[in-house]
């Protein structure tokens, strides 16, 4: 049972075609501010991506409005809880991409890789014919990743296509399993690889956060903490704020 005094921290995304996404900004801001929701939502013609904190019901009202305005049929949503807001105000931004790969137009919903369920992930990535690629940035991988995963050592996601071009030999002839924090970067990176001609491309459904919630890391394959893009900075394997990482700006 969830303590009603806890703050819901909700990350979500959806790849859906949006005409004139800029028209959505004032409507979303109005609803969110009325409900004291904090966080950031990115809008583009390819969809929306956000992380918000407030009561679970208030955040859901904002997500419901996004679904109504965009006609989204499926939104990937991840919720956990903490005792204070990890965000400080509500921002809604217009972007060229909701997660920037800078690789041109990609039909993500058609091309994205095959999901591996969280409870099947350990068995899958320990197969001899599977190579695991952590698509996150170097500073994220540094504090935690899966045992044996390749770290592309990218400073931004935009550098990932260049890494692939230089390292195709690591991927060819293998089943490629990709992971990221909540799943959005893998939706795009797996589609990108399939657009390049790779056929056996897979990704962790719901991302690392969903894996930790569902499995509690039974075989110890996840090693370290998981970086998150808010004032918690990182969460432990039980999804609580990792000790020593919380950035306290003096606000509750």
In a few lines, what is going on in this structure?
By secondary structure, this protein is of the alpha/beta class. The chain folds into 2 domains: 7-94, 2-Layer Sandwich (Alpha-Beta Plaits), CATH 3.30.70; 108-235, 3-Layer(aba) Sandwich (Oxidized Rhodanese, domain 1), CATH 3.40.250.10.
Q: Would you spell out the secondary-structure blueprint of this structure?
A:
Blueprint: E1 7-15, H1 25-34, E2 38-44, E3 47-54, H2 56-70, E4 76-82, E5 90-94, H3 108-111, E6 114-116, H4 118-125, E7 130-134, H5 138-143, E8 144-146, H6 160-166, H7 168-171, E9 175-179, H8 184-196, E10 201-204, H9 207-215, E11 222-224, E12 226-227, E13 234-235
Parallel strand pairs: 2-5, 6-10, 7-9, 9-10
Antiparallel strand pairs: 1-3, 1-4, 2-3, 8-11, 12-13
> Structural class, judged by helices and strands?
alpha/beta
- At the first level of CATH, the class of the largest domain is Alpha Beta
Assembly form of the protein: single chain
> What is the H/E string?
EHEEHEEHEHEHEHHEHEHEEE
Main sheet: strand order: 4-1-3-2-5
How many individual domains? 2
- Please report the number of helical segments: 9
- Poorly predicted runs: 245-252
Strand proportion: 25-35%
CATH architecture descriptor name of the largest domain = 3-Layer(aba) Sandwich
What is the alpha-carbon Rg in Å?
A: 18 Å
